[in-house]
Amino acid sequence: MDSSSLSKPGSCVKDNLPRHPYHETRTGQQFPTALSSLSQEILHDNNFHTCRSMILMNGDRCIPGQWVLIHQQNGQQPLVAQVKEIIQRQGSTAEMTSSPDAIFLQSGKIQGSTRPYQMPLVQYDDTNILLPIEVTHQGTSNTSPSIVHKGNPNDFMLNTAKMRDAKHILPLVCEPLTPLNTDHAIMEGCVHEIDNKKSTQYPNNIPQPWVSSSGHSIRLIK
Prior knowledge:
Layout lengths: L11 E3 L11 H5 L9 H5 L3 E8 L5 E2 L4 E4 L8 E11 L3 H4 L5 E13 L4 E14 H8 L6 E3 L5 E4 L7 H4 L12 H20 L21
Antiparallel strand pairs: 1-2, 2-3, 2-5, 4-5, 5-6, 6-7, 7-9, 8-9
């Protein structure tokens, strides 16, 4: 498979782990009967790869653990979900085209906003989702990473500042967010970041100076 095909939306890259039977994958444990159309021999042999990444429609590379928007063809608003696992069956049509056979997702819900950045707060709900190959192409052709991880590993901020994806993100915001004063937002964000860094580096609260190499305390929130 040439490198250009691996950069196309929907393409995926296998990890370096050994193949597994379907029931040993996270997908198989959550959806044990999802591939019941396949023979038991195929399901129980080591025929299933896990993938380390896939390409979304906007060209971003997505890895398990990242959050995405899933476009729904029925006109409903997009779903916010975390990618849990990307699997590919050995010898399948999907493998021949470097595409996933299925994607295991856990959906999230948007509740309120978080300070100091005034962005919508996303939390897990209890819904697991499986996108089989015939839906995967629709889903991956209309998805875009849109979550910035910050703080509690089960709490995430919806990054409404990512303007190229804003048209997909903003309909998910249930409440209008209070417009920010830019200078105040930058200052509040810097103070928050410095406090977090101090509490991590100096757990005994011993006062210590903290200055970046350039003399500025502003840094990007990735």
